[in-house]
Design brief:
Number of helices: 13
Shape: globular
Bound molecules: S-adenosylmethionine
Largest sheet: 8 strands, mixed
Structural class: alpha/beta
Number of strands: 11
Radius of gyration: 21 Å
Order of helices and strands: HHEHHEEHHHHEHEHEEHEHHEEE
Helix content: 40-55%
């Protein structure tokens, strides 16, 4: 009762309701929220503090950035989600906030795309600066080795490296990426590697241009740290998994290398072990404990989660070649 009352008191103010509505759409920084609301930073910070104290919002720091989102757990988190649902969809203030949020996201996506465009040709070189990829690739192959994989999807395939590694072990591989430049490099790499069983296609990880329940395994390798809404990307990956199918997420453990954000368009500086596991659970998957591959500066983590149900290739839709025509 006390928690409910303090949540209601904290939310009962126009700016704070707007903040709840915005933070229900993903993880946002104070400066993004300030830009959207058009209010001073100290004012917005004060409202955010009250919402966090009441348990309606979660706040988490990553090096120089602080993110806010609607609380994942607890009665106050549930209350926040209910309140957001009750907000009139056509309220002009809320509608304008969401329009501005879309612009902020578009701006971010454009910056990341410009980065990938500029780095497509030597992306493989850049990624080897951070960690020994061969070790990660071997661990990934091993994670998936104990069951056959007919259809594999590589989300955010980039230069197609994961498809190249997995091609001999699967019947068919499909790579999806938003960047045409990356896909152009991937096409050359896959041809050179003789990976004729793999195809690539332009698409967005939040809206995969693929039917549900059509893959035995999905890999998201070094992509989520660019994502505005990593939980949504995981939910979309879960959608295309067949019952019994497996998702592997490879990404960094939490770190403080701010230059990756400034120079390499990273949004998140790694993910907590339980954070990804929770998102998998929320997407209806059963996660296992992740594997950690520590290195000098960055630890790569591999999370494996399974969609409940029958044997990996049983059930679900068959993947039509038409669905994955090359871009
Ligand atoms: C760091 S690269 C990783 C590429 C590859 N998975 C690898 O490990 O070599 C990240 C890739 O994610 C892609 N990407 C980022 N956001 C995306 C989105 N919303 N939908 C599809 N691809 C996206 C980028 O274009 C880029 O190619």
């Amino acid at each position: 009762m006390d928690e409910l009352l303090s949540g209601l008191r904290a939310a009962a103010e126009p700016t704070r309701l707007r903040l709840l509505s915005l933070c229900a759409q993903g993880e946002l920084t104070v400066s993004e929220l300030t830009d959207i609301l058009g209010q001073s930073q100290p004012r917005v910070s004060r409202h955010l503090k009250l919402l966090c104290e009441a348990g309606l919002l979660d706040r988490f720091r990553e090096a120089n950035w602080v993110f806010y989102r609607v609380a994942r757990q607890g009665a106050a988190g549930d209350l926040a989600r209910h309140l957001v649902e009750l907000l009139p969809a056509h309220d002009p203030v809320i509608a304008l906030d969401h329009e501005r949020l879309t612009q902020v996201k578009r701006h971010r996506a454009a910056a990341a795309e410009a980065y990938f465009r500029a780095n497509a040709a030597h992306w493989d070189e850049i990624r080897t600066l951070h960690i020994d990829d061969r070790e990660v690739e071997a661990a990934l192959v091993q994670l998936l080795a104990d069951e056959p994989v007919d259809d594999l999807l590589d989300i955010g395939t980039g230069t197609g490296r994961i498809l190249e590694v997995m091609a001999p072990k699967v019947e068919r591989g499909v790579g999806i990426d938003r960047s045409r430049e990356m896909l152009a490099v991937a096409r050359v790499n896959l041809e050179r590697a003789g990976a004729g069983n793999c195809s690539i296609r332009q698409g967005d990880m939040y809206q995969l241009p693929l039917p549900g329940a059509s893959f035995d395994a999905v890999v998201i390798h070094q992509v989520l740290h660019y994502a505005d809404e990593p939980a949504r990307a995981i939910a979309e990956a879960a959608r295309v998994l067949r019952p019994g199918g497996r998702l592997v997420v490879a990404d960094f453990a939490p770190h403080e290398l701010e230059f990756l954000r400034e120079q390499h368009a990273h949004r998140r500086l790694g993910f907590g072990e339980h954070e990804i596991m929770e998102w998998c659970r929320a997407a209806g998957l059963d996660p296992g404990r992740p594997v950690a591959l520590p290195a000098d500066q960055l630890t790569v983590m591999l999370w494996l989660a399974r969609r409940p149900g029958g044997a990996a290739s049983a059930g679900g839709a068959a993947l039509d070649r038409e669905d994955v025509a090359s871009c």
